[in-house]
């Protein structure tokens, strides 16, 4: 059982989810990041590794015991059925670990970072509100290119597979525009934090 109210934080690739989550954490809010949980599950000694090795074979495990992500990425790119099997193993574990972390969380609310929040009914059922980190498309392309070293067409191809920005904007309860500077992002997170402290605490006492 999750004791605190949960704000689901989402956004497209490179929209600034991690940066925004860091500012929430700086306000003392517990942040649970599903990407981090996924990494932990597939790190050396990770809980998912025995099942992944049993299903995909020892070639997909690196010498240090972690998942060989590059090899796995190549496989799931070629084989949609392998992607589904990988997700069938990982997704329930990530959800389970998210709920366990949220159950331990203290405070008026916690932030759960889920890149595919609007695409996943299981996570939509967990969160009380949704917060979209939104970003001007051209700014987003430039930031992802700078961070990843991918070409402009590669970045645009990835973005084309994601839910359109307009659809996300329509589904979100709250939106932060991260087209500006990091200090502008920090100010917006602080404003949302104050809003959540009052509105979610009020909702809880009703
Ligand atoms: P992903 O979906 O790929 O995990 P993300 O949504 O978590 O990405 P971040 O990693 O927070 O996005 O940001 C993407 C890149 O853009 C990072 O290099 C980050 O430092 C940079 N960035 C984020 N917000 C800003 C900003 N307001 N000004 C300048 N750079 C920014």
Total beta-strand segments:
5
CATH topology-level fold name of the largest domain = Rossmann fold
User: Residue ranges: pLDDT <50 for 5 or more in a row?
Assistant: none
Mean pLDDT: 95
Q: What is the CATH top level name of the largest domain?
A: Alpha Beta
Order of helices and strands: EHEHHHHEHEHHHEH
**Which class do the helix and strand fractions yield?**
alpha/beta
Strand content: 5-15%
**Arrangement of strands in the largest sheet:** 2-3-1-4-5
> What hetero molecules are bound to the protein chains?
adenosine-5'-triphosphate
Q: Give the name of the CATH superfamily of the largest domain.
A: P-loop containing nucleotide triphosphate hydrolases
| Main pleated sheet | 5 strands, parallel
Question: What's this, in brief?
Answer:
This protein has 206 residues and is an alpha/beta fold.
List the helices and strands and how they pair.
Layout lengths: L4 E6 L6 H10 L3 E4 H8 L7 H8 L12 H10 L1 H25 L4 E5 L7 H6 L2 E6 L2 H12 L3 H10 L3 H7 L2 E4 L4 H24 L1
Parallel strand pairs: 1-3, 1-4, 2-3, 4-5
Question: How would you describe the overall organization of this protein?
Answer:
- The protein has 206 residues and is an alpha/beta fold.
- It folds into two domains: 1-29 and 109-201, P-loop containing nucleotide triphosphate hydrolases (Rossmann fold, 3-Layer(aba) Sandwich); 40-106, no CATH class.
- The chain has ten helices and five strands.
- The chain has helices at 17-26, 34-41, 49-56, 69-78, 80-104, 121-126, 137-148, 152-161, 165-171, 182-205, and strands at 5-10, 30-33, 109-113, 129-134, 174-177.
- Strands 2-3-1-4-5 form a five-stranded parallel sheet, with helices on both faces.
- Helix 1 packs across helix 10 (182-205) and helix 4 crosses helix 5 (80-104).
- The longest helix has 25 residues, at 80-104.
- It is globular and about 50 Å long.
- The structure holds adenosine-5'-triphosphate.
- Adenosine-5'-triphosphate binds at residues 11, 13-19, 115, 143, 147, 178, 181-182, 185.
- Adenosine-5'-triphosphate binds next to helix 1, helix 7 and helix 10.
